[in-house]
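Quiz preparation item.
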């Protein structure tokens, strides 16, 4: 399956060339494939904030390259470059609050900086560290795809239809995806007939990004309104809901795109299994439960306007963009270190003691 997955890898959203970071502008997809070039940390922080790049692993990878760019620019400028790089890291850390991969990647870069040997080039060392974060995420995607497919096979062999939410594919990661990687693997293995994709209001990551990725690969995809999910679970033979994560806490609670929690409640009601797929860089063992996760709230205008045109009434709008699914609604969490069925604190801490499987 690994070779077939690699052969199917068509889309990428992050590229590092000639000392610059290139990001596919995800705000414009699928209408236009426009690449933007970044040469400093402030630009990368703004790209994360404004959602040029989005998806938890992709945000972490972009931030890591942002630190490499920071070192290059601050060394060129002279003076106390260490202090200036620290300030840039703080700027990157402030770009979005929920996906822990951002802070995980910045910590890795900070630790690499602290381990510099005398005479070693900081820029080369940080570029290599960012590239390693990028490549490891791609490898983790492959491992998770295999483990997720094994999990589907273990429970019921061939499935008729899956439901997913938001975008967890090549656009959101360093490889071809977390939840969408499992879905791609299941398709390659002939295990699914159709994928239902929630449109994922208000940013429409489902209709603009996931549906586009799946259709590009010839995987049968049907788009639905978020509010149709329970009806689809009841009437369309859905056997698994498969989603990604932005932060998983020590007890197995999962923060993911707003709407994930209601999917898990509905899945439990309909006897549909619920799978979360995320690399271990998404697991935050410093937080005991999901109640501690900072939930990003974005502008109400994202709900009241479409394409910049106001259609909503003149009212206040509440726009939390993530929610927390409690661990007891989750059948399995799939990571590159292994899987955790019916997650709890003891099982999560055992998982984190394991080595990566690749
Ligand atoms: O606001 P976004 O688009 O960054 O949110 C992304 C999600 O919620 C994804 O489901 C999650 O990051 C998993 S991506 C592999």
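Solution:
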């Amino acid at each position: 399956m690994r070779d077939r997955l690699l052969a199917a890898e068509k889309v990428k959203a992050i590229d590092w060339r000639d000392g610059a970071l290139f990001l596919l502008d995800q705000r414009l997809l699928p209408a236009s494939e426009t690449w933007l070039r970044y040469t400093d940390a402030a630009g990368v922080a703004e790209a994360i904030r404004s959602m040029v790049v989005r998806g938890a692993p992709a945000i972490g990878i972009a931030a890591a390259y942002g630190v490499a760019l920071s070192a290059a620019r601050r060394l060129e400028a002279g003076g106390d470059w260490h202090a200036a790089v620290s300030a840039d890291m703080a700027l990157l850390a402030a770009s979005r609050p929920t996906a822990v991969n951002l802070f995980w990647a910045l910590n890795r870069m900070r630790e690499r900086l602290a381990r510099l040997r005398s005479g070693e080039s900081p820029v080369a060392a940080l570029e290599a560290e960012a590239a390693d974060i990028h490549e490891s995420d791609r490898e983790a995607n492959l491992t998770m795809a295999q483990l997720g497919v094994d999990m589907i096979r273990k429970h019921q062999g061939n499935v008729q239809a899956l439901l997913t939410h938001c975008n967890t594919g090549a656009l959101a990661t360093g490889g071809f995806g977390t939840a969408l990687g499992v879905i791609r693997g299941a398709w390659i293995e002939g295990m699914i007939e159709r994928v239902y994709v929630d449109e994922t209001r208000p940013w429409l990551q489902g209709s603009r990004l996931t549906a586009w990725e799946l259709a590009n690969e010839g995987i049968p995809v049907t788009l639905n309104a978020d509010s149709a999910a329970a009806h689809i679970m009841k009437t369309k033979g859905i056997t698994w809901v498969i989603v990604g994560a932005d932060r998983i806490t020590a007890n197995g609670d999962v923060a993911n795109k707003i709407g994930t929690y209601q999917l898990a409640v509905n899945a439990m009601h309909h006897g549909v299994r619920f799978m979360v797929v995320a690399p271990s860089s998404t697991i935050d063992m410093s937080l005991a439960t999901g109640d501690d996760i900072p939930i990003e709230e974005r502008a109400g205008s994202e709900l009241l306007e479409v394409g910049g045109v106001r259609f909503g009434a003149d009212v206040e709008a509440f726009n939390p963009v993530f929610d927390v699914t409690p661990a007891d609604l989750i059948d399995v969490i799939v990571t590159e270190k292994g899987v955790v069925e019916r997650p709890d604190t003891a099982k999560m801490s055992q998982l984190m003691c394991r080595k990566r499987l690749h």
